[in-house]
Structures
1.
Amino acid sequence: MAESQNILGRLADAGEEAISKVSEMPALHRLATTMTTLRERSDEMQKRLRGLDDVEKRLTALEKKVDALAKPKRTTRPAPAGKAKSSSSPGASSAKTGG
């Protein structure tokens, strides 16, 4: 048992040394800063994406309204006044009286 505790102690010491050496490395400091910034940016991105759901719902509703307005309504249109046909034409009345 004493031997296994000795091995674990040496391993712990080596781990502590490794951690202290790694923390002194400038590249690792930049990496840690980048990771922190990345997390903050991803949180901000998630908030923005959640807002897009509401925008998509509003857009869908507006598209439906536009489609409804764009469809031609089936109503009977009155004939224009200039093109209305009358049952008696001016030529027909003169033919009946002319003798």
2.
Amino acid sequence: MQTAVKKVRVDCADLAIGMYVCELDRPWLQTPFMIQGFYIKDIDDIDTVRNVCDYVFVDKIVQREQLTKSLPGASSAIVLNMTVDGAAVKQSGPRLSNAADEGQQQPYRSEQGIDAFFGGKKLTQYSNSVSWRDEAANAGQAIRNLYDQIARFLDISIDGNPLEFDKIRIVVEPMVDSVIRNPDACLWATTMKPPMDDSYDSALRASVFAVVLGRRLGLPRRDLCSLAMGGLLFDIGKLRLGDDILKADRKLTEKEMELMQRHVEIGLSILKRDGLDNQDIIDFVANHHERFDGSGYPKGLAGDMIPAFGRIAGVVDCYNAITGSRKYASSRSPAEAINQLYKLKSVHFHKDLIEEFIHAIGVYPVGALVELSSGEVAIVVAQSPTRRLRPIVVVLLDADKNKCREGRYINLEKVTHQDDGRKLDIVKNLEPNAYGIDRSKIRIS
């Protein structure tokens, strides 16, 4: 039985991952799309549609579960080498399709709704109580203090001394409170902090990302503090491994990988020895490498068998690994990491959890370098809560890619056109160090 279509007009600048496009602003035969109706699966799909149309109609009724396996995304629905209005349509290049669409192992457990993740917990809907500018100073101080304390706590553990979990909770609280007030400020302070020790940087990022996702899910403050502590501690077992593994500038051998995977077991033994009895934190640490399709470790848990805080940990750890500095592979842009995570939904990660993470972090996350349709290069500094493709950016390079003397802020939610009347959009994601930009030296005022 087919469900009635409820069409809603959406400007292409406001397209989002997860939408089903059922109608265009022009006849289908005047476009390069060979199929009438497609799914927006990733950022490439958004770019493809924006190169053809000014606006589209989105079906608000059709269910995502009916789409992912049976319908194409925009990029795969397009006919190659066609032109629109006499102009060639830009192609996105090779794309990685969803593993679920290509016959890889499917999760054999049901996918619970988000509400079922947390049993009887009372969830809330947070809203920003201050602007990202007003929160910037508090967030910066919270992140600097937290980083210093991470180094102290982890060094204590390396020396064999017991961790004091009550003190760690006190240390994370200023960051948690800052994220509750406005997550963009803490995301900026975390992403733009000068790189230091890899282990400490990774712990800091994981802690903040976990809290940002937990806030999006509506978890109470107490649970956000547990997520923050889990992010700080979930890789503590790695510190017991030798530098020849941790600081290797090459891919690890199979034997070394087996040893590396033991860090989960080692970390749990340390935390339990020191008296950790918070089950949520234990679940976070124990399951951050488990995957929804059962392909993870150490137990190969699948689907709903992975505890809720473990599922959150898996998403956070994956995003952290993609965007962090790696000895044997270059880090990827935040926007590319979001795209890669989306391709893993319902395979490695719960589909709703991935979509909630994308909402929390943004399609163009804070710290992402982007190119505007004006030719200018900018960096994302804050999100729009209602128009996720139109964040607030600060311009770093002019259209000729020359450094701007003073940063110019643009709220793309409000500024939709250039001075000459042409549309102003984000048209391209850039690599983290594109055009020689050192993100750690960027300051906002």
3.
Amino acid sequence: MKLLKITALSLLLMASYNCKEAKKEAKEVSEEMEETMEEMKEEVSVEKIAFSMEPKSDSNVAGEVTFTEENGKVTMTATFSGLTPGEHAIHIHEKADCSAADGTSTGGHWNPTAEPHGKWGIEAGYHRGDIGNFTADADGNATLEFSTDLWCIGCDDETMNIVGKAVIVHQGVDDFTSQPSGAAGARISCTGIIQ
């Protein structure tokens, strides 16, 4: 009988110990899963800001611009109306100040790396604001999408941070060679990039 009690007590202690170990392992697995989920959330974080364009230089050019940052890349999506049919230049300028009637309060092209003006991606150099040209249809409407890993939204790197800058649409075409701005003509639409 004593042997039976000792055996039962031993089994009870073993079961209790195994239960504690199982709980401990379950807690560790749960903590690991939470850490993994947090890492996944950080990797998939998306920053999005949107703005309305306002007409400048007595134009009727309006539009919407959205910047989305995801996985280290910023995508600019824009729609415009009120343009003359054909090509127009679009740039990011150095100041988010659209107060001047002709848009000149935005300053020159955003050029934090002190490069010459040029076509985006060329070896000779280009401004971080040198987006390029887009085409308006016969009704004066246009859509543009541009992506780069050389921009960020609100980061600490001033050579990448687009916040505090402005989007400018020009009446003419960027020739990619004239310094410092591509001879793109009047500034006909503007918005400040403010977070």
4.
Amino acid sequence: MPRAAHAVPALLGALLVTVGCTQETSGTARPAVAAVGILPTESEITSAVGNPLSSFGFKPFIGGVEILPDGYRTEAEASPIDCVAVTDTAMRVVYEPTAVIEDARQSYFNWDAGVGVSGADAAVVRLATTADAESTFGDFAARWKQCDGKAVIKHLRGVSNSDLVAVISDVAVEGEVLSATVSTRPGPFSPTSTYQRALGTRGDAIVEASLGLTASGVDQTDPHAAVKAVKVMLDKA
């Protein structure tokens, strides 16, 4: 889930804001919104999830497909590999086959006792055209539905040399937004962690959100909070 972002040169961010254009379905060109400009602000993500979240000053990752997380690539690392599209936010292996123009991602945190959402990841992927985004969303919708009810076994090789099980449930499609619940457990005697996942599209952009719920947050957090976070981003796309 959320990891600290590294600073990105300001010049790169400025360039991304000023270049590129996208295509509406009607065929009328409009200035593109840079991916970083679609990410939710701290106040927007706070409003969506129902408790304060902060980036603590960490800058977003900005760039191409290479800035997306690259933890799992094969069945030897996570199985079924297709379902990491649901369990993990904007994985590189998921987007490499698509016509990616630029990406941005940011993490937000709250470690205070009693909060419902302790962390969130948000990601924006801009593709070459609206048609590319719509086609990709259709592929993702089919994949998420096929993964509903499945358990993804993630092989955490290294110091722990253990497996983590992520169970996908409650996959739903509402218009141009997908949502799901992911429950993870590092072992049969370990506590379960629960995440809300959502993904949506508008124009040439695909946006994703993941929320990490606390034990109390499973009951106290709006079950549509991740969808709300995604809709905040879609309204800016």
